């Protein structure tokens, strides 16, 4: 169903585009009463006759009170000022009042988003969690960061006992959405208008519900959008998300970008991946030296060796000599890993007794769930710059 707020004379022209079950309200007060009486309603179309300031105040309030409900705003004239103010207030789309085809599309997109947001946990205003941020990084590509991040988040959320948010910081080539077979209707790019004032309602509106207990903040899909994301947005989101989730797992690109450093700064745990080959080990060594240089605490670090059983002429001694620290998880190689990715079902859920799943679950149990959280040293990045 849809609620349309528009005087009756004008509403008649719009209602055919909104379907048979549209309910017409003359004022925003009436919309509020209809919403209160129907907790399942997720779409309000605010007509062009409604004053802009009133429409935006109503939307900003609805975003906090009912994040799953969306507002599509109609205006006689679309200009940049109206669009910017509307997006800041949390309006999902602004459509020219005569453009009925765009109105239909905007309503479809808003309903699809509401269906996803409905599964995202909505913390009450008085409920603030102190979740842990876990950043998974490797300076060499293809070491298994995404595989570990997706499976770690899935195992931590398994059964919905804990709430977990998986953040895809591989902004240009992120594939978390694909691994979880999730449609990227909302991505981090929709948070651009929130820079400087990210709050719980704003952050929740960017998330996609994937499974019970597991939500994701997906990477942009359009080419070029990655460059538009400022590191400040990442920092702000990583301050707000831990107040909403027990764990925030961050997947990263294989480069020390500003965004990765923002995640490292916000993290309680740095998980550094490698594989048993000389280029990956060399890059891990450089990464460890870099983290030392930035004065991040050693005890928040875990080195994870992926494809640990690969027979490639290096002994465990050779590997430990380079790494100079304990290896906290050995994840074996198995063709079942890419098979699970192709199915869009993480291996820890698909085959929980598989040696890969057991290695990741043990790591989660012994090194993530068991250890007290300490946040990374914050001053280091400024010094580095
Ligand atoms: N233990 C494993 N056994 C078999 N295949 C694996 C294993 N871990 C990862 N893979 C496969 O290796 C490929 C690279 O893994 P993944 O995408 O997780 O790496 P990444 O570090 O995220 O790569 P990128 O740097 O491109 O983001 C994928 O096809 C994945 O399915
Ligand atoms: Mg990856």
UniProtKB/TrEMBL annotation:
Domain (CobQ/CobB/MinD/ParA nucleotide binding): residue spans on this chain: 134-347
What the entry lists under InterPro entries is as follows: CobQ/CobB/MinD/ParA_Nub-bd_dom (IPR002586), P-loop_NTPase (IPR027417), ParA/MinD_ATPase (IPR050625)
- A UniProt-annotated Pfam family: CbiA
Q: Which domain of life does the UniProt lineage start with?
A: Bacteria
* Name by which UniProt lists this protein: CobQ/CobB/MinD/ParA nucleotide binding domain-containing protein
Organism name: Lentzea flava
């Amino acid at each position: 169903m849809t609620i349309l707020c528009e005087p009756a004379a004008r509403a008649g022209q719009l209602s055919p585009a909104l379907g048979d079950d549209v309910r017409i309200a003359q004022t925003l007060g009436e919309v509020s009463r209809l919403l209160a009486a129907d907790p399942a309603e997720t779409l309000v179309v605010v007509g062009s006759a409604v004053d802009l300031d009133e429409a935006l105040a109503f939307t900003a309030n609805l975003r906090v009170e009912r994040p799953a409900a969306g507002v599509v705003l109609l205006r006689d004239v679309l200009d940049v000022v109206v669009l910017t103010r509307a997006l800041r207030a949390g309006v999902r789309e602004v459509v020219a009042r005569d453009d009925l085809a765009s109105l239909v599309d905007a309503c479809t997109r808003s309903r699809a988003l509401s269906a996803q947001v409905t599964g995202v946990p909505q913390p009450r205003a008085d409920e603030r969690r102190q979740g842990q941020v876990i950043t998974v990084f490797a300076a060499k590509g293809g070491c298994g960061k995404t595989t570990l991040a997706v499976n770690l988040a899935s195992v931590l959320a398994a059964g919905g006992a804990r709430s977990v948010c998986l953040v895809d910081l591989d902004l240009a080539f992120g594939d978390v959405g694909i691994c979880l077979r999730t449609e990227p209707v909302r991505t981090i790019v929709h948070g651009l208008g929130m820079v400087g004032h990210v709050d719980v309602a704003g952050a929740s509106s960017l998330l996609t519900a994937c499974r019970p207990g597991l939500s994701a903040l997906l990477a942009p899909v359009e080419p070029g959008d990655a460059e538009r994301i400022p590191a400040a947005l990442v920092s702000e989101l990583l301050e707000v998300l831990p107040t909403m989730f027990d764990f925030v797992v961050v997947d990263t690109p294989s480069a020390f970008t500003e965004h990765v450093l923002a995640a490292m700064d916000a993290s309680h745990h740095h998980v550094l991946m490698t594989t048993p080959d000389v280029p990956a080990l060399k890059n891990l060594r450089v990464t460890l030296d870099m983290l030392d240089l930035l004065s991040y605490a050693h005890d928040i670090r875990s080195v994870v060796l992926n494809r640990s059983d690969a027979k490639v002429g290096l002994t465990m001694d050779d590997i430990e000599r380079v790494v100079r620290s304990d290896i906290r998880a050995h994840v074996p190689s198995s063709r079942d890993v890419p098979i699970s990715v192709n199915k869009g079902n993480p291996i820890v859920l698909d085959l929980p007794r598989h040696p890969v799943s057991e290695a990741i679950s043990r790591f989660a149990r012994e090194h993530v769930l068991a250890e007290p959280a300490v946040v990374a040293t914050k001053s280091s990045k400024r010094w580095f710059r």
